[in-house]
Amino acid sequence: MAGGVHEARAGGSRPRRRRPRRVLMFPLPFQGHINPMLQLGDALHARGLAVTVLHARLNAPDPARHPEFRFVPVPDGVPAHVAARGNVIDIIEAMNAAMEADGSGPVRAVLESVVADVEQPPAACIVFDANLLAVPRAASAVGLRTLVLRTASAACLGCFMAYPMLHQKGYLPPQESDLYMPVKELPPLRVRDLFYSTWSDHKKMRDLLARANEAMENSSGVVINTLDALEKPELERIREQLHVPIVLAPGPLHKLCSSKSTSSHSTLDHQDHSCIRWLDKQPSESVLYVSFGSLASLDSDEFSEVAWGLANSGHPFLWVVRADSVRGSDGPAALPDGFEAAVHGRGKVIRWAPQQEVLAHPAVGGFWTHSGWNSTLESVSEGVPMMCRPQFADQMMNARYVVDTWGVGLELEGELQRGGVEMAIRKLMKGRDGEEMRGRAKELKKIVADCLEARGTSQVATDKLVNYILSL
Ligand code: UDP
After folding, report:
1. Which of 53, 114, 127, 135 is least surrounded by Cβ atoms within 10 Å, i.e. has the fewest?
2. Where is this region: Disordered (predicted)?
3. Percentage of the chain exceeding pLDDT 90
4. Which domains does the chain carry?
5. Contacts of 209 (CB under 8 A, 6+ apart)
6. Is 327 helix (H, G, I), strand (E, B) or coil?
7. How far, in Å, CA of 438 to CA of 425, rounded?
8. Residue 38: closest CA among 19, 7, 62
9. Following CA atoms 183, 369, 230, 465 in sequence, which dihedral angle do they give, to the nearest 10 degrees?
C-alpha cells in the first residue's frame, strides 16, 4: 500500500502526516546486496512509502514474490561470458561501462519514465548501491536526491573511507611480511583483514572504490546495514568524517523487515525446506550449519578436506553445496566416494538453505561460515556462534570482529585439512571455548533484539529515515 497517512509502526519521533511519497531503490545485482535493499524497501513500505525497485537483468528479483513493490528492469550491458565467469569486479565494471555511456543515458531514460509515472506517488529520492556509478548523474538530471545503502559493515565502510591513507602509509597493497601487523588507525584490524583483492586487478578496484566513495560523499545520506550496539566506535568515526546530512544504522535489516518472503528472498536457487524437517529431529544445539554464501568457492582438494573433516568430526551437520561450490569443475560439485555412507543419518547436504530459518532453529549449535556480512548478521541475530573461514573482500574483517571484538567465534586459518577442520568443529561444538562463545552469542542476540524493540535504536533510525525522506 502506498497509503496517504504516514505513521511509524514503532520507535521514536513519529513521521508527520504528509502527502504520499515514493522511494526508488536500485541494488547491485548480487544476493548479498539485493536482499538488504529489498528488506529496507519492505521497512519503508510498512511505514507508508511506495517503493519502486530498479534492477539489473542479471540475478533479477522475482516480482511475483514481492507484490508490494513495483519492479523496473534497467539494461545492464553485462556480456553473457562475463556474467558466466562470475568475477564480481568484472561484472560491476561491465555494468558501469554500459550504464554510464552517453552521460548515464540508459539509467536516465529509465528514471525519466519512472518519475513521470503519474499513477504512482511523486518520487522523493533514489536509494542506491554506491557501486552503481551511473546513478548520481542520472538522478541529478531528473532532479532526484540520492541516498546510499551500504550492505556491508560500518568497519568495512571505514576501511573504504581510509583507502587513500592505507595506501599512503604503506598498509596497502599488503606485503607478505606485514600481514599480521595491526592497523592502528582501524582497530582491531590487521593488514590481512583489510579489504583487498588478490584475484582482481587492485588498481581497478581502488578506482571503483574511490568513485563509490565520491558518490556517497555527494549523496543526501547514508544508510548502513548495521546497528549501534555492534559497531559504535566505527559508526562514530564515520559520522565524524563523512559530511553528509544523515548517517543511519537501522540494521539488521532482515529482522526489521516484516515480510518473510522479502527477509529471506533468494534470487539464486530454490530454498530446500526439507532441511527444516530434518533439523526438527536433531537434538538441541547439536547441528553445525555449513554454508559459504552465494559466491565463495573451494578447489576440489579443499572440498574433499571439508567433506572428510565434517564426516570425521562425528557431529551432525547441514551443509550447503551449491552447483558452483567447487572451482574449475565442469558439472555440479560431486561429493567424495564413500562420504554419503560415512555420514548417513548424521549429515545432510542441500543445494540452498532457508538460511535465516536454519539459524533460528533450536537444533543448530554452530555456523561454519565464509563470514559474509549478511551471514554474520543473521548468525549474531540468532545467537549462533561461528567458525569463520573468510576468503575475500570484507570477509576477513567480519571474521576479525566475530573473533576479537564480539568473542562469538573462532577462525579456521591456514591450509584446509581434515584434521584441522575436525578439531575446530569439536572446539566450537563441544569444547569449553565453544561454550563461552555460545554464551556470548546469546547475550549478543538479546542486545540485537533490544535494538529492534519499539524504542530500540534500529526502529528509531528507521523512523528518522522515513521523516527525512518525507522532508526531501
Ligand atoms: N543464503 C541463503 N541460503 C543459503 C546460503 C546463503 O539464503 O544456502 C543467503 C544468506 O541468508 C545471506 C546471503 O545468502 O543473506 C549471503 O550473503 P552474505 O553477505 O553472507 O554472503 P555473499 O553471498 O554476499 O558472499
Report:
1. 114
2. 1-20
3. 85
4. 5-256+452-471 (3.40.50.2000), 274-449 (3.40.50.2000)
5. 160, 163
6. coil
7. 13
8. 62
9. 110
Judged against a pLDDT cut of 60, whether residue 15 lies above it is answered with no
Residue 12 binned pLDDT confidence (cut-offs 50, 70, 90): very low
- Could you tell me the distance, in angstroms and rounded to a whole number, from the CA of residue 403 to the centre of ligand 1? 20
By most ligand atoms within 8 Å of CB, the mutation choice from 31, 150, 322 for ligand 1 is 31
* CB distance 47 to 459 below 8 Å: no
Quote the Cα angle for 91-94-100, to 5°. Answer: 130
Which pLDDT belongs to residue 199?
61
Task: Tell me the residue length of the chain.
Answer: 472
Q: Cα–Cα distance between 48 and 45 in angstroms, integer? A: 5
Q: What does the buried/exposed string (b/e) look like for 144-183 if buried means 16 or more CB atoms within 10 Å of the residue's CB?
A: bbbbbbbbbbbbbbbbbbbbeebeeeebbebeeeeeeeeb
Give the number of the atom of ligand 1 that is nearest the alpha carbon of residue 393. 25
Whether pLDDT at 291 is above 50: yes
Residues 6+ apart with CB under 8 A from 415: none
Say if residues 131 and 208 touch (Cβ distance below 8 Å): yes
Whether the predicted pLDDT of 320 surpasses 60: yes
Q: Please give the distance, rounded to the nearest whole angstrom, from the Cα atom of residue 374 to the centre of ligand 1.
A: 6
Which amino acid does the sequence have at 272? D
Beta-strand runs (E) in 219-306: 222-224, 247-248, 287-291
Enumerate the β-bridge partners of residue 411: 388
- Report the distance separating Cα 206 and Cα 168, nearest Å: 13
Degrees to nearest 5, angle at CA 465 with 461 and 467 = 115
Gap from CA of 144 to ligand 1 centroid (Å): 31
Give the lowest-confidence range in 82-86, 230-234, 283-287, 425-429. 82-86
Cell 536516465 found at: 108
What was the pLDDT predicted at 262? Answer: 67
Q: Which of 45, 38, 30, 99 is nearest to 63 (CA)?
A: 38
Instruction: Give the C-alpha separation, 219 to 128, whole Å.
Output: 10
Q: How far is CA 143 from CA 135, 140, 278, 322, 351, in A?
A: 12, 5, 53, 43, 44
